[in-house]
Backbone:
């Protein structure tokens, strides 16, 4: 109380001293109070301006230069997030609180509201300062290996919401003079409206926690979500949205809680495993599938990848046919080699010897169910390089070779008839009997 009384006496003394000076200089008494107010207000603004200049231009500049010269990175993040600037803004506000009783001593009814206004600005200033500090902590954690793929933006937004909520309670208490519990009580009564207004934020907050806890998505993951046109790398995860940069460099924004409610594909498992799957089939024309003659088997045994297999297989077939006394005048009796079977074995051995195919992952060459497009021979393997362009090159090289090699097995790849095939058909002329004319469809 004594200190407060001394401040009041000092402010009254300064005010009356300047007031008396103005009267002595000939200012009318009825106007002296207002003139004194503007004089003291002008002096306060000049002093605060000088303090702001000194703090921001001198102190902040010196600290910024020191941060750039230091070897640590955290102070650089403080500078980039303007933490020093927000701190500098607090100093003039703190000093202005001491000026208000002096300047407005002649208008005591203004002192209380003005001090409340400055207090509110101080609360907001502290919030902005802590916001900058937490941003700096986020940027610093992003450089750490264990936090690079974590949704730090979501956590930061939750902290910001909490800070603004606390600041709102403090400002409410300052303005109304009521207890914070009164504000919380009123907030409870309006909870239904708040739930409706902040529905997306609440859902996003819960989804962010689930995504982080279950390690469903990280920054840098390649995800596919066809329902929302997303196919690319995750570049940002925050409280409400997930940003995906598609392969065509467009950006798709997905609400965070959709990652919980809808299905999506995350390619992180493929990237971590170090092998990318090839799953492609060659459709064989069924009419070209047949048994092989001895001469054809001898010719195909010159293929180095098949030489040992053909020799062992033929010995096994001959032994079986001899034991069962199969009538070899009819090829369907006993066991025989087929051109499609040898081609499948060739593909199997070719991919097993390919230097860019993972041998420790699934390697499968299989027949699928025949369709109207022929007999599919599917190749199911994994490349050792997961980079998109190199993966496509490896797959193309493999199937370039297989499509070129298929003719040596007297097989044909199924193709739907093209327009040229239809034009080149030779059809008999309608009504033409024996010796009748024929015509050819040509252009």
Residues:
């Amino acid at each position: 109380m004594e200190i407060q009384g001394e401040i009041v006496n000092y402010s009254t003394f300064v005010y009356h001293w300047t007031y008396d000076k103005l009267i002595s200089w000939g200012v009318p008494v009825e106007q002296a109070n207002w003139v004194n107010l503007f004089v003291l207000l002008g002096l306060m603004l000049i002093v605060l301006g000088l303090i702001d200049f000194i703090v921001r231009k001198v102190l902040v500049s010196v600290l910024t230069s020191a941060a750039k010269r230091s070897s640590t990175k955290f102070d650089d993040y403080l500078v980039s997030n303007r933490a020093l600037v927000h701190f500098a803004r607090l100093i003039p506000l703190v000093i202005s609180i001491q000026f208000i009783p002096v300047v407005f001593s002649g208008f005591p009814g203004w002192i209380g509201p003005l001090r409340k206004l400055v207090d509110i600005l101080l609360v907001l200033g502290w919030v902005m300062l802590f916001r900058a500090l937490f941003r700096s902590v986020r940027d610093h954690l992003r450089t750490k290996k264990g936090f690079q793929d974590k949704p730090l933006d979501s956590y930061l937004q939750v902290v910001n919401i909490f800070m603004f909520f606390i600041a709102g309670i403090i400002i409410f208490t300052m303005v109304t003079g009521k207890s914070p519990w009164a504000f919380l009580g009123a907030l409870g009564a309006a909870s239904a409206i708040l739930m409706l207004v902040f529905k997306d934020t609440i859902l996003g907050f819960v989804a962010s926690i689930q995504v982080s806890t279950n390690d469903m998505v990280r920054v840098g993951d390649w995800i596919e979500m066809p329902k929302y046109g997303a196919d690319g790398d995750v570049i940002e995860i925050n409280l409400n949205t997930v940003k995906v940069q598609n392969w065509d460099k467009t950006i798709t924004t997905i609400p965070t809680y959709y990652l919980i409610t809808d299905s999506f594909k995350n390619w992180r498992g493929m990237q971590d495993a170090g092998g990318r799957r090839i799953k492609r089939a060659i459709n064989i024309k069924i009419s070209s599938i047949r048994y092989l003659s001895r001469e054809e088997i001898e010719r195909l045994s010159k293929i180095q990848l098949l030489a040992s297999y053909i020799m062992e297989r033929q010995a096994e077939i001959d032994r079986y046919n001899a034991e069962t006394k199969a009538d070899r005048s009819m090829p369907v009796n006993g066991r025989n080699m087929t051109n499609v079977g040898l081609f499948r074995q060739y593909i199997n051995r070719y991919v097993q010897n390919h230097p860019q195919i993972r041998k420790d992952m699934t390697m499968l060459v299989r027949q699928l169910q025949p369709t109207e497009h022929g007999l599919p021979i599917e190749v199911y393997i994994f490349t050792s390089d997961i980079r998109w362009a190199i993966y496509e090159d490896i797959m193309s090289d493999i199937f370039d070779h297989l499509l070129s090699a298929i003719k040596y097995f007297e097989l044909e790849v199924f193709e739907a008839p093209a327009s040229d095939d239809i034009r080149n058909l030779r059809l008999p002329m309608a009504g033409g009997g024996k010796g009748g004319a024929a015509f050819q469809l040509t252009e």
About this structure: Residues 213-271 form a domain with the SH3 type barrels. fold (CATH 2.30.30.60). The longest strand covers residues 276-284. The two ends are 111 Å apart (CA to CA).
